[in-house]
Amino acid sequence: MIIGLTGGIATGKSTVAAMLGERGAAIVDADRVAREVVEPGQPALREIVNRFGPGILNEDGTLNRKKLGEIVFADPARRKELEAITHPAIRERMREMIEALQAEDPDRLIVADIPLLFEGGHQRNYACVLLVYVPREIQKLRLMQRDGLTEEEAEQRLAAQMDIEEKKRLADYVIDNSGTREETARQVEQFLQSLDKPAKRKKP
Predict the structure, then answer these.
(1) Burial class (CB in 10 A: 0-12, 13-18, 19+), 160
(2) Nearest-CA neighbor of 19 among 36, 5, 35?
(3) Which of 7, 52, 141, 167 could form an SS bridge with 11, CB 3.0 to 4.6 Å?
(4) pLDDT of residue 197
(5) Measured between alpha carbons, how far apart are the two ends of the chain, in Å?
(6) pTM of the predicted structure, to 2 decimals
(7) Sign of CA dihedral 189, 195, 198, 204
């Protein structure tokens, strides 16, 4: 079975992905793949430099994510330009990884960890979608603390994603990560148990 895992920025999706991995699931992490496809020498990085200029590179030729982020989070049109370059490369690499995992063990649970799953309309590709949720105010505070952002910068990043309440409405399963780690782990266990029972998917 292949399921989609998503959340909002700073909701704790990586924590839940790690918990699923500890319980035997294979995790295909879109964020990790996104870093790989823009490494030096990759076609996607060359195209990004062509579109955004050499100023978005560090001296060693690697991508300066902070500089690029300042451009794309302030301008939705530029963000779409970037996504048009990176998203196809990410999707293709993830498809290859999932196919390899299925060939290795057809019965293993595969979790596709995708931050912008709903934004990209990819929910139909998975048996079900699991959302890691916290209320928006907690999300903003965690983001500011984690990344050292001002409130305005945090709001820009939140505005670049679908609202977490809308994602909650669309998801098949929701894990509320606003409590303790133990409470989150208990919900992960309950979710895994539910996969063994018939469940009706929400309509896309």
Answers:
(1) middle
(2) 5
(3) 7
(4) 58
(5) 19
(6) 0.84
(7) positive
C-alpha–C-alpha distance, residues 30 and 90, integer Å: 7
Q: Looking at the domain that runs over 1-25+109-195, which CATH code has it been given?
A: 3.40.50.300
In the chain, CATH 3.40.50.300 sits at: 1-25+109-195, 30-108
Residues 16-52 have pLDDT tens digits of: 999 999 999 999 999 999 999 999 999 999 999 999 9
Rounded (10°) angle between helices 43-52 and 76-104:
180
43-87 pLDDT tens trace:
999 999 999 999 999 999 999 999 999 999 889 999 999 999 999
Percent of the chain topping pLDDT 90: 89
Full DSSP string of 108-144:
S-EEEE-TTTTTTT-GGGSS-EEEEE--HHHHHHHHH
For CA atoms 115, 182, 148, 163, the dihedral sign is: positive
* Spatial distance between the Cα atoms of 27 and 21, rounded to a whole number of angstroms: 6
CATH architecture of the domain formed by 30-108: 3-Layer(aba) Sandwich (3.40)
Question: What confidence tier does 102 reach under pLDDT thresholds 50, 70, 90?
Answer: very high
